[in-house]
Design goal:
79% helix, 8 helices, mainly alpha
């Protein structure tokens, strides 16, 4: 075997080794492919969520201004019963998961007051109009039914987000942040009733809802500022 052949084999081996080393170095230096997982949705409603919900309530209230008498009463009562039921469900979560005594006390008050009002409104629909709450909602004008569906979708989303928050101090913030616009919706809708209802009981209830829930909204905003540095 000639010395030239040996030298050739040596050069070839050296080149191969260099290629291997270079490939390894390049692989080590190259950035690894990464995937950024999408962040889970926040369990707390954002300001845009609250504004959307309130916007639907304001449009609903505007539509109520076009109704009078029995049609106004049936529409208002049917929707407010569902709205109250959502508040009761959210308040029960606060009792189960919250820690602030003040917030838990308010939750208990919401449950007692709104369950009582649900019973009153359901009884009035049955006695005056022979209707269930569901029938009253379906009897509303088509434009109002569309707004009601939008409101109910927002309420379900609000409840789902709240239900995803674990027990502890953070739950109080989530509860107050959700219940504040929820109450504001009720006051906006209730304020459209006086002067249009047939029965004095309905007008009295609407004014009571507006007064009591406006006061609770102020308390919840005060607590959000004092406890978390935010006004809700």
């Amino acid at each position: 075997m000639s010395s030239g052949s040996g030298i050739g084999r040596t050069i070839t081996a050296a080149l191969a080794a260099a290629i291997v080393v270079a490939s390894a170095t390049t692989a080590a230096a190259a950035p690894l492919p990464t995937s950024t997982p999408s962040a889970p949705p926040s369990p707390q409603p954002s300001p845009s969520d609250a504004q959307a919900i309130l916007g639907s309530a304001q449009r609903y209230a505007t539509a109520l201004h076009g109704l009078n008498g029995p049609e106004l009463e049936q529409t208002f009562l049917g929707n407010m019963i569902s709205h109250h039921a959502a508040a009761v469900a959210m308040a029960r979560l606060e009792l189960a998961r919250g820690t602030h005594p003040e917030a838990r006390t308010m939750a208990g008050q919401i449950i007692a007051a709104q369950n009582r009002e649900i019973t009153e409104m359901t009884t009035w629909l049955r006695q005056w109009y022979g209707m269930t709450p569901e029938q009253a909602q379906q009897a509303a004008p088509a434009s109002i039914r569309a707004l009601t569906n939008r409101i109910h979708t927002g309420l379900r989303s609000m409840q789902s987000r709240l239900a995803a928050v674990p027990a502890g101090p953070g739950f109080d913030k989530a509860f107050l942040t959700a219940m504040t616009p929820h109450h504001e919706m009720a006051t906006v809708i209730a304020d459209a009733v006086p002067g249009r209802a047939t029965h004095a009981q309905v007008t009295t209830l609407a004014r009571q809802i507006s007064t009591s829930q406006t006061g609770e909204v102020q308390k919840m905003r005060d607590w959000l500022r004092a406890w978390y540095g935010t006004g809700g």
